């Protein structure tokens, strides 16, 4: 015959087991309704606004509550973190190689990721511009000015940052367009990087160096970052100079197949990436000074985006794979330039 204490003990054990089961089920449910967006440095504020809009849209369509977490850093460093095990459901980078590497290193991303969303899976573009101190005291007008002796040019490291890589390619493309000579283009870029006193790991670090540490005569960065600096720190301190020719920087996005299958978040991750192309998200994108793909939204914000002559990486250099091998692989042209500067 059971004593009262034994009965209460058994009831207590059942209660503890039941509570533990409910807790475990709640953790599982949370995992199924949470996704992680691993992105690059200067998109932080953009996704802080996109994520709540997506959460509301998802709730309206499905009745479910979802959490979207963010991770930001230098684009190439972020891609390597995902390859090393960071559980990103989606990656939203600023250059295609940082998604291609996730295809090559273990098939984290599908090989046909470009075909899964509009515009080769790029919901917006930007371009590389110059941010100078108010009044442009050094009279900077174009890329040639950045190679003058004694200038200090602030930009992020092309080995770790897509922002820095686009700067390198913009300068090379400009010089090649002017000289029609690969040798002259290399010499031009070497002169520019000889004027770089410090190579920050990402675009946000370069912004801090220029705006808060008061280092450098010019910050070379994405247009959206330059506009944001003016909005945050005041147009009385800085102004933007648009070069005569620059590079189009299309920002690619993709789903991380291995992670969404493991977490059961494929439906949510797909919806998140598709939402980036919706009119609602495109307006948020334009509001953060990225150039939207939606033509109607672009017209609405036309005054924000001055006309600028640009070239794409593919137009000027061939494929991104060729660019990586020739310019940014270990021991390639960029490394050779840096060693000699």
- The domain tally reads 3
CATH class of the largest domain: Alpha Beta
How would you spell out the order of helices and strands?
A: HEHEHEHHEEHHEHEHEEEHHHEHEHHH
Helix content: 40-55%
What is the residue-mean pLDDT, rounded to a whole number? Answer: 90
Please work out how many helical segments DSSP would assign: 16
List how many beta strands DSSP finds.
12
* Distance between the ends: 89 Å
Measured on Cα atoms, how large is the radius of gyration?
Answer: 24 Å
Silhouette:
globular
Low-confidence stretches: 1-31
Classify the fold: give the CATH topology of the largest domain: D-Maltodextrin-Binding Protein, domain 2
In percent terms, what proportion of residues is strand? 15-25%
Largest sheet: 8 strands, mixed
Secondary-structure arrangement, i.e. CATH architecture of the largest domain: 3-Layer(aba) Sandwich
CATH superfamily of the largest domain: Periplasmic binding protein-like II
- Category from helices, strands and their pairing: alpha/beta
């Amino acid at each position: 015959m059971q004593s009262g204490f034994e009965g209460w003990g058994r009831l207590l054990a059942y209660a503890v087991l039941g509570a533990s089961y409910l807790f475990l089920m709640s953790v599982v449910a949370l995992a199924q309704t949470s996704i992680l967006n691993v992105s690059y440095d200067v998109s932080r504020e953009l996704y802080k606004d996109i994520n709540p809009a997506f959460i509301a849209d998802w709730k309206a369509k499905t009745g479910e509550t979802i959490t979207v977490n963010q991770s930001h850093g230098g684009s190439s460093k972020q891609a390597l973190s995902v390859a090393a095990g960071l559980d990103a459901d989606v990656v939203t980078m600023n250059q295609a190689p940082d998604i291609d590497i996730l295809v090559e290193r273990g098939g984290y991303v599908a090989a046909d990721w470009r075909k899964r969303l509009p515009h080769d899976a790029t919901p917006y573009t930007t371009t590389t511009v110059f941010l100078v101190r108010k009044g442009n005291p050094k009279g900077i007008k174009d890329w040639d000015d950045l190679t003058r002796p004694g200038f200090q040019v602030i930009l992020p490291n092309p080995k770790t940052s897509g922002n820095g890589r686009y700067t390198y390619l913009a300068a090379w493309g400009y010089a090649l367009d002017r000289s029609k000579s690969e040798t002259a283009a290399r010499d031009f870029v070497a002169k520019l990087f000889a004027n770089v006193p410090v190579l920050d790991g990402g675009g946000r670090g370069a912004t801090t160096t220029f705006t808060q540490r008061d280092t450098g005569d010019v910050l070379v960065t994405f247009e959206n970052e330059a506009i944001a600096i003016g909005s945050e720190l005041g147009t009385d301190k800085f102004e933007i100079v648009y070069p005569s020719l620059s590079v189009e920087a299309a920002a690619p996005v993709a789903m991380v197949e291995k992670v969404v299958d493991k977490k059961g978040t494929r439906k949510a991750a797909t919806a998140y990436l598709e939402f980036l192309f919706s009119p609602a998200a495109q307006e948020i994108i334009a509001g953060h000074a990225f150039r939207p793909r939606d033509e109607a939204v672009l017209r609405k914000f036309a005054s924000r985006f001055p006309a600028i002559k640009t070239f794409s990486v593919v137009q000027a250099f061939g494929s991104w794979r060729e660019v990586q091998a020739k310019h940014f692989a270990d021991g390639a042209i960029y490394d050779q330039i840096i060693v000699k500067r």
